[in-house]
Amino acid sequence: MLESAQGTLDASEGHMSFMERGIFNIPTWNKVHAPPKQPSDFEVTVQMWKTVNYHVYRLRFTSAVLLRINSKDELRDTINYSQLAKVVVQSHHQYLTLHFEGAADPWTCWSDDHTNVVRELTQRTKDSRGKPIEVEFEAGAKMFDYAPSTAGKGYANVSAHEGGLRNSTAASTGNAEQDAFLDNVFDQLGTLENQAAATASALGAHKTLLEDQDVIARETDERLKDLNVRADSWLKSNS
Q: Under DSSP, is residue 18 helix (H, G, I), strand (E, B) or coil?
């Protein structure tokens, strides 16, 4: 039974580890291909440190979320703009550090288009939550304008939108594909929610199992004590 309890705990820990990933750091074995790029999306190439060297990623700013995509066109992170806390422009040329709400580790990245990354961050966060992300410049960092436009719809796309509305057919197609992608993301989050319920159930079962084992252990201890007393009495009577 103790082996069974350990197996239950191992499974629970596995579920918990998977849930703690959230929508950050999607496991490499869970290959999720990036959705099609839409006309309103802005994408930029960055380099980020990983283990022993820099890896190339694409940051894609969509109307709803920020995506990080690897060189295999696989989705690594899906981040709601409400999760973005602050971006720091480093004194090191073209380096940025992106900070998140909660316990997620910050991202430090390099891009030769770092000014537009900051501008897109301020615009997208303003568009989605009404308030742009906080921008901080380290001492010695080169200053630049990053104020979001009142036109909205993404900083890099503002000039294209100011002359008139985007083609309605293209917009509806893009929104449909984006909605389908987000539905897929929410399905995965629903799976995580089910795993959370399974983990809670498994932990409850494990607790009950340990309580049963404790009762059995106590009963065994009492039986051993009684057996020792009987053994001592027999030895005295027969020595």
A: helix
Q: Supply the DSSP symbol for 39.
A: T
- Nearest CA to 23 out of 171, 190, 168, 140 is that of 190
The CA-atom distances, in angstroms, between 192 and each of 5, 21, 187, 199 are 23, 10, 9, 10
pLDDT, greater one: 166 or 100: 100
CA gyration radius, the chain: 28
Enter the tokens of residue 237.
Answer: 């009577």
Closest CA to 62 of 159, 164, 165, 179: 179
**Both ends of the chain: CA-CA distance in Å?**
40
Predicted TM-score (pTM) of the model is 0.56
Exposure class string for 109-139: b at 16+ Cβ within 10 A, else e: bbbeebbbbbbbbbbbbbbbeeebbebebee
Q: Per residue in 120-158, pLDDT tens?
A: 999 999 999 999 999 999 999 999 999 998 776 666 554
CB-based contacts of 36-40 (< 8 A; 24+ apart in sequence) = 36/177, 38/62, 38/63, 38/174, 38/177, 38/178, 39/166, 39/170, 39/171, 39/174, 40/153, 40/154, 40/157, 40/166, 40/171, 40/174
Amino acid at 80: N
Tell me 105's DSSP state: P
CA triplet 91, 94, 97: central angle to 5 degrees?
70
